[in-house]
Amino acid sequence: MSGPITTEVRDGILIVTSNNPPVNALGAAVRQGLAAAIDQLERDDEIKAAVIRCEGRTFFAGADITEFGKPPVEPMLPQVIDRIEASSKPVVAAIHGTALGGGLEVTLGCHYRVAVPSAKLGVPEVKLGLLPGAGGTQRLPRIAGIEAAAEMCATGNPISAAKAQQVGLVDKIAEEGRLLEDALEFAKGVIGVEPRRSREVPVHGDPAFIQKFATENAKKFRGFDAPAANLRCVQAAVELPFDQGIAFERQEFMKLMMGTQSAAQRHIFFAERQAAKIDGIPEDIKLRDIKRVGVIGAGTMGGGISMNFLQAGIPVTIVEAAQENLDRGVGVIRKNYDASAAKGRFKSEQVDQYMGALTPTLKLEDLADCDLIIEAIYENMDVKKETFAKLDKIAKPGAILASNTSYLNIDEIAASTSRPQDVLGMHFFSPANVMKLLEVVRGAKTAPDVLATAMAIGKKIGKVAVVAGVCYGFIGNRMLMPRQVEANKLLMEGATPEQIDRVHVEFGMPMGPFQMSDLAGVDIGWHRDPNRIENVRDALCAKGRWGQKTGKGFYDYDEKRRPTPSPEVQAIIDEFAAKEGTKKREISDQEIVERTLYTMVNEGALILEEGIAQRASDIDVVWIYGYGWPVYRGGPMLWADHEGADKIVTGLEKHGFKVAKLLKEKAETKGRFNRPV
Ligand code: 3HC
Question: Does 81 share its domain with 171?
């Protein structure tokens, strides 16, 4: 047999091996090979049982997502799984790495499952806006019980081999490194026994759990179609005979597959992986070695940034100017770790280990042995230039010098050193130990290996790193600006903070622009002169309305930080509107969408035109991971594709905006920013 599936008979057992790098996705050739192997098993009287296993780093990681949306090629995965299940001789799955999605469904078609302790088993389809559509929603409640099945299907989170054994999904844990031998031994033990077919096992567990789980997770599932569809299918397994349940599953699967949410979520799956690729730089470029990291500034950002490296096992030297600030910064890191340990996220030994790898100092000179130095002080160009000029004298040759600036010009910062090729931006998002996004800002003179190293280290510390060019605010914050400008204007024209925020939350954002401002601090960037009142923001700050931290901002907050609309704020808005002579009118929700979200798409198009982002999908990744854009809308540029560039252009022109050339082009040619997936 040629192709990705090969077979071998050993002691009367057919060993079916898949070798389809990188993740043994269940593409057409794999499915054909599996079906042929089952034929061989049935045909050959000398063969008494079979073991299905995979070469490489993982067991089948699922259906081949690149085949979605293309004409189907027989045999389809559900047919293959049915054939395995129907076999008259026992079939054992030997699982290592990750058995995911269609991969786990293959194991459910098998009669028994053996796994190494490090294996992970899951049905992550929900994360792609889908459900396990090859019988998984019907077989899992039969094998693992309703509770485990509902949770696995609706969250998509994988479980460990130990947990899988506990719920009955794994029959035997193999010794690490002896998977095949242990699986063969298990197979020998079931020769001649009537295979245990998943479809024939009664569903067990508490059916009431399904609704309870949906209610408990309502906030997490808000806006998404797939979690509820997954739960409906598990419910169907409880209520319907197997074949009817399968028909229901198919119907629900097809609905999701044809919808925009799954298209958006699949787009983001590939976009995230694509973001790691740097145009024009070979993937095998030699990276610089990062053994120790220096962080300048022990404030909220510096502390959060340090935590990422400590957790990745990279020692950090953290520098502050005053002992008091240094102590406070280190204290906050310790407090954060202790809080995580109390929640069971870390063991206390781990916390000790992280803190032990942190070297606090008041001397910039102590950064001399660092391979990467990240400056995380406040946003002031002169201070940053001064710091980088000093670093230039201190840092060892070849050290990477990065600024965590959110807006400022990296080229100007780099010019204050004698080694601009070693300088770039590494823009983390607050809280830096939690938020997944990292914008890596490529200066005009940044060396290719410096850029590639920063991207790789981003991945190592668990971030999704995206390359950005130099401009005010890079990708994310630059797109925030037109949104904020329009939100402020809308207030003058008659919209309220509540209405604007509501439109954004209903769209799927975690919060609207004014809620965000209250959370971050209305006083950020304020000139601090209570007598200088030039806009609504100045007026709020002058009255001590600095946001949640002072109990009032655009909203009033109670002791539980619950917001209510503020008559005082409305009076301030009305006063400014009257002063400006702006006439108030009824503002529709649609106008808010057009002026705050279409303008972001327009800015995104400019960012692409100027080459600030490498590709439209990178912009989507920035907004999903940095600002909580709803993943089921796929980021602003995919949303634009779904909305239609022509509709967006019409909306923008209606309000008198200058439309980006690229956006206009897309509208005229009915083109898209992203390829459909
Ligand atoms: N189909 C096609 N390609 C896939 C794939 C899949 N299911 N899973 C991963 N790949 C590709 C990636 O795009 C990437 O390609 P690239 O190198 O060209 O960028 C390559 O394989 C390696 O992937 P990762 O970089 O993600 O490798 P990791 O080692 O970090 O992670 C993994 C491995 C945990 C398996 C991760 O790739 C993953 O989570 N994959 C998706 C799993 C999944 O969602 N499965 C369900 C599919 S839907 C399904 O099965 C429907 C069925 O119910 C009918």
Answer: yes
